[in-house]
Amino acid sequence: MGICYGKPELPEVREPTTPSPAHSLFSSKKSPSVASEGGGSATATPRRFFKLPFPPPSPAKHIRAVLARRHGSVKPNEAAIPEDEGEEGRGGAGLDKNFGFLKGFASKYEIGEEVGRGHFGYTCTAKIKKGDGKDQPVPVKVIPKAKVKQILSFLQDLPFIAS
Ligand SMILES: Nc1ncnc2c1ncn2[C@@H]1O[C@H](COP(=O)(O)OP(=O)(O)OP(=O)(O)O)[C@@H](O)[C@H]1O
């Protein structure tokens, strides 16, 4: 009897009945633990995030609150400038001159009628009284000091602007 040199019989490789802990890392199937956490879909986590008892505060509310607070402390002569242009028309209707011009303004310029309004102030016609350009018509933009202070104060209250 000779010795037979056939192929050695290899043991049959079978899938283990219980997968190793690393199996889920390489398997395309979802692990049972992941699948049980709310379905594992892309929408599951955001849905849980938005189930907060209160929605996050809107920055618009903060801005509106600051504006309302500021508006409450506005003096009567400041309220003469509307937020939207053209409400009172042109030509000086409702023009409030109850504020201080720069020193020497009255001696240099003769202020005329209002020609238009913006968010911060209004524009008037004026005429140079003396010196270079005497009698030359010029536009004068009037921004009440209190309005500037109000805007600066509002900007400082904003959380995203460093003072
Ligand atoms: N030189 C000018 N000649 C004629 N009209 C003018 C002149 N300058 C301004 N105006 C009128 O006055 C209006 C207001 O001008 P203003 O410069 O105050 O506007 P604005 O820049 O929108 O204002 P704000 O910066 O306060 O928002 C203009 O829409 C325009 O009708």
Describe this entry's structure for a reader.
By secondary structure, the chain is α+β, with helices and mostly antiparallel strands. The chain has a domain at 59-81 and 94-157: Phosphorylase Kinase, domain 1, CATH 3.30.200. The protein has 6 helices and 3 strands; from the N terminus they run H-H-H-H-H-E-E-E-H. Strands 1-2-3 form a 3-stranded antiparallel β-sheet. A hairpin with a 4-residue loop joins strand 1 and strand 2. The longest helix has 14 residues, at 59-72. The chain starts with 22 loop residues before the first helix and ends in a 6-residue tail after the last helix. The relative contact order is 0.10. Residues 30-40 and 74-93 have low confidence and may be disordered. It binds adenosine-5'-triphosphate. Adenosine-5'-triphosphate (ATP) is lined by residues 115-121, 123, 139, 141.
Compile the SSE list and pairings:
Elements: H1 23-26, H2 32-35, H3 44-49, H4 59-72, H5 105-108, E1 109-117, E2 122-128, E3 137-142, H6 145-157
Antiparallel strand pairs: 1-2, 2-3
